Amino acid sequence: MTKEQRLIKRHRAEKRFKFYGLFSIFLALLFVLILVNNIFSKGSSAFMKTVIKTEIFYDQELMEVENGASREDILDADFFDVTIESLLKVYPTNGLEEEKQLINLFSTDAEIEIKLNFLENNNIAGQKIILEITASDDIDQLHKGNYPRDLPEERRRISDFQLKIFDKLVDEGKIEKNFNNYYFNKGDSRDPELAGIGGALIGSFYSILICLLLSFPIAVLASIYLEEFAPKNKITDFIEININNLAAVPSIVYGLLALQILLSTLHMPRSTPLVAGITLALMTLPRIIIPCRASLKAVPPSIREGALAVGASKFQSVFHHVVPLALPGTLSGTIIGLAQALGETAPLILIGMVAFVVDIPTSPVDPSASLPVQVYLWSESAERGFVEKTSATIMILLSFLIVMNFLAVYLRQKFEKRWN
Amino acid sequence: MNLALIFLITIFSFSLFFYGRSKSKSLSIENNYKLKALPKFYGYYLVLWCSLPSLVFLLVWTLFEPTIIKSIILKIAADQGAIMQDQNAANLIYEKIKAVYLGTYFGDIDSLLKESALSYAKFKNIFTNSKIVLIFLIVISSIIYALKKIKSNNKARDDVEIILKGLLFVSSLIAILTTLGIIFSLLFESIKFFSVINIFDYLFGTNWSPQRAFVRDASSITAAEYEDLKDAFGFVPLIAGTAFIALIAMLVAVPVGLFSGIYMAEYATKKIRRVSKPIIEILAGIPTVVYGFFAALTVGPFFRELGENFGLTVSSESALAAGLIMGIMIIPYISSLSDDVINSVPQSLRDGSYAIGATKSETIKKVVIPAALPGIIGSVLLAVSRAIGETMIVVMAAGLAANLTINPLDSTTTITTQIVMILIGDQEFDSPKTQSAFALGLTLFIATLILNYIALRVVKKYREKYD
Amino acid sequence: MNEIKIKSKNLNVFYGEKQALFDVNLDLNEKEVTALIGPSGCGKSTFIRCINRMNDVIDICKVSGSIEMDGIDINDKNLDVVSLRERVGMVFQKPNPFPKSIYDNVSYGPNIHGKGETKSELDEIVENSLKKAALWEEVKDRLDEPGTSLSGGQQQRLCIARAISVNPEVILMDEPCSALDPIATAKIEELIDELKKTYTIVIVTHSMAQAVRVSQKTGFFHLGKLIEVGKTEKIFKNPDNKMTQDYITGRFG
Questions:
Q1: A11 reaches C (C-beta below 8 A)
Q2: What whole-number distance in Å separates Cα of residue B106 and Cα of residue B102?
Q3: β-strand A175-179 against A48-57: which pairing, if any?
Q4: What residues does each domain of chain A span?
């Protein structure tokens, strides 16, 4: 091999190597793109729901209450007959089977929607009113184009008869897409069209709040101790080793800890944001202490010496001068720690947050879900409607995380002083 | 109740601050001496004495009250003839009693339940009242003590600082307490598990099917029953599955992560670095449940269809899908750590290599990487420990059946998956099945601990070398 | 007088906005030692880093003017920097052996340039280079030990061995003795004297005594400008320029 050939070969190797690097970065970026695109294209339709404009006849003869009845009476009353009679008028049916198929176009909550409308306008008995009734999950998915109609009938969840009604309703302009209020203000449900993240949002909020209230002060105090006051001895070393190891312990182990200590030994209530918050706080603590200490360490000794030189006590020098200067770094570390806690799933599964909870929690000791756990729960469901709901929940979860991370970066860049 | 108490203590402490401040001033005027600290420190001193002992007492009381009441009530119930064969039955009865007390019990209330509920109400009342009285006493006595100190003109600032320093120290002890808590809770159940299942049968058994171990009295297992049981808790398929998926993940993450790190550190212009580094790090910030969802609903089915086209049978929950996605999750850990490590290799080594006429890639391959190798190995070990502890991706995408397989297209299971599967929903206490989850947790804890320890040591050694 | 090996014409170097060299015209003679002296930050290191284009490593560095080696402009875009550096070796201020064995440190260059195809050829190159660098006797029994385990002076000679292992024509030395003790310095100086029989050497130094001891020609730099250049004897005995005079008599620096 001549010198020139060798050089050409070496330069080719150089280009190849550089290409591998670029290609790796490209692969990683491509995956981010695919993931985000996949989630958004599946999830964005969940923020709308399909409704069917239906004429409801509040027939006096079928109703148990009259105009002006009390709230309790109306809520107790049965609107089943009114509902069925009105819904059956939508399309002529022949026989029980077709009637059933027609009714199935509507959400199982149709009766409640009709009842609530009566409650709001308590003088419409005997009248015919056009209402937008939430459609069933299958119709919802069909209308959004997520459901293939060209399968043979026996492999479809929607019968030919239902398709025929659907097409007619579309022609008549009776099918519309509205903002999906249910998705935000309802709890979990077995029916995708009625399932919402209201409960999970509140559950996550309480969990993170408790996690913040517990982990932030303790982490700051512990960091101050270790960085400013701790003597160099075995106990301090041991604490340091502990913190570093805890930061790397798999999150599921914290779930086992919570199960054994919080639930079995201390008898705290299962499936609640209280226990979730404490568990997440234990997990987050070392992850906050590490950046807190780093930002305390970044404050130069001259600041401390300056304060000590004017006769401040060690405490005053730390609390009046060092801590305020380290605060932005501390806060941004805390926010990133909380963002991780917000996305954490495994330990919450172990403390029973996978329980099926329909009611929206009103306090941290009510059973509840959380956003990531809701993602897990819905992803295990077979119904097509839940895929869209799961993706939408991921979108919401990711937007929280993006906001939090952005805030952390902003805090750090805006307020952190550079010491040199 | 507790909130009201905390509120009262807080309000009271606040007002004591002002009292302490003015009291110390007037004392110094009356008795004509110079205060040994600023008046406000006497205020702080009172606040700390008023709030700390009472709040600590309240916390301890609240943590242990339910346990104590439960044991008292169950003892009373047992005396009255309630039948409790085991822990589960006792728990059930206790829940019933509580439900009767709260008025949410809809079954038949027999006299035993009724009596127990009444005594539950009685004890609840006694405990609450004594809590209030005790807190009251504690607050009063600690204030009296503090006031006495103030009257003798103590060095209030030093005293306040000593108390606060104690508080700081206690905060940092939480880390040790957490570790102890983890070890205690894992060991406690694991020891019970290993008293039933021989540890060797666990470590070397090749069959994992804990569902076969339905509830039975763990304390009296006959030899024949044990023959049946020991075969249900073989750890080998789980460690094999875990290692296998971690291996696939590493096969994805190490080359991509390492090359990205190298490119970032050695080739990328500032502009590319500024844009691509945060984007890659997004991958580390995405919750694992999202990856799990993506693996289970998109990647798994995609592989199955792809396999069908080539005439392969691919399980929709395949080790390949889970491992691939886990690998992608781990890319940023490896890329940013190796980026850091490569950046800390001194420039003089690169210069030396360039000066003999090495190309950039030759310098990287033959000088920079060998010099950075310990750091890179450390970061890979950290990534491995993350991979074996990762839960959601494998729970959602890897499958539940404990197959001993090396076919990446098959489904396999992992340690973390089995922990979740055993403990999801209601558990039977004192069954080997439940306890086995803690034994798995202990194994996982020890494994990650060792990996992390080695990794941190290696990285630390490396850092010291070039600092 | 030996032939001119390297000729710089109107060489200007910029680091971003800041100009580091101003119109430097300097000839370096073959098989001779040229010393560059001057106060810190005067541009002498920048100048020698232009000769093997080490400044390419720094993004913000721009070079204009020309440096010709054997009549060919080395700043030519088409010239391969890799083969340039094969011909122009360099020894740095701080010894920077690779974290590899002594043997691997020396065989690294021949390896990448495809010299010494067989193990025995390579062994020979390593042995010769170490002998030329006057290190062979000290390390011949421990070639497998890491290069970093040697003493400072030995490390620097190892770096010299590394530089001559690819048989360059020119060796650039950037204050090669500044991190060494007097005994190690003496050894290196002896070595330079020996090496100049084979190689063209350019040495940047802070020590005027060293310049007198090792060089035949000396250039004085100040604030990025080449103030004066000439026979070492002349520069140190009766320089033409007042500033040179002031510097060598220690009035500033």
A1: yes
A2: 11
A3: antiparallel
A4: 45-180, 198-415
Which residue of B349, B357, B366 is in closest CB contact with C96? B349
Token output for C121: 């050829």
User: Which residues face A175 on adjacent strands?
Assistant: A52
Q: What CA–CA distances, in Å, run from B355 to A385, A413, B368, C15, C49?
A: 64, 39, 14, 20, 10
How far B37 CA lies from chain C's nearest CA (Å)? 56
The Cα of B275 is separated from the nearest Cα of chain C by a number of Å equal to 19
Beta bridge partners of A177: A50
| 3-state SS assignment for residue C9 | strand
Distance of CA A83 to the CA centre of its chain: 34
* H/E run at residue B228: helix B223-230
State the nearest Cα–Cα gap between C113 and chain A, in angstroms. 8
Are A11 and C83 inside 8 Å of each other by CB? Answer: no
CA closest to B366 among chain C residues: C108
Residue B423: closest C-alpha in chain A: A350
Q: In 3D, which of B414, B192, B195, B395 has the Cα closest to residue B296?
A: B395
What's the rounded Cα separation, in Å, for the pair B321 and B325? 6
Residues 224-243 of B with CB under 8 A from A: none
d(CA B424, CA A348): 10
Residue-wise pLDDT tens digits, A282-332: 999 999 999 999 999 988 888 888 888 888 888 888 988 899 889 888 999
- pTM of the shown model: 0.86
Closest CA to B374 of B441, B466, B237: B466
Interior angle at CA A236, CA B157 and CA B180, nearest 5: 110
Query: What pLDDT does C253 receive?
Result: 56
ipTM score for this prediction? 0.90
Give chain B's domains with CATH numbers.
2-154 (no CATH), 236-424 (1.10.3720.10)
The CATH class for the domain spanning A198-415 reads mainly alpha
pLDDT digits (tens, 9 = 90+) for C81-130: 888 999 999 999 989 999 889 999 999 999 888 887 889 999 999 999 99
Burial (CB < 10 A; 0-12, 13-18, 19+), residue A143, is buried
Residue linked to tokens 């517990």: A214
Look at phi and psi of residue C114 and say left if phi exceeds 0, alpha if psi is from -120 to 50, else beta: left
- Mean pLDDT score, B20-44: 82
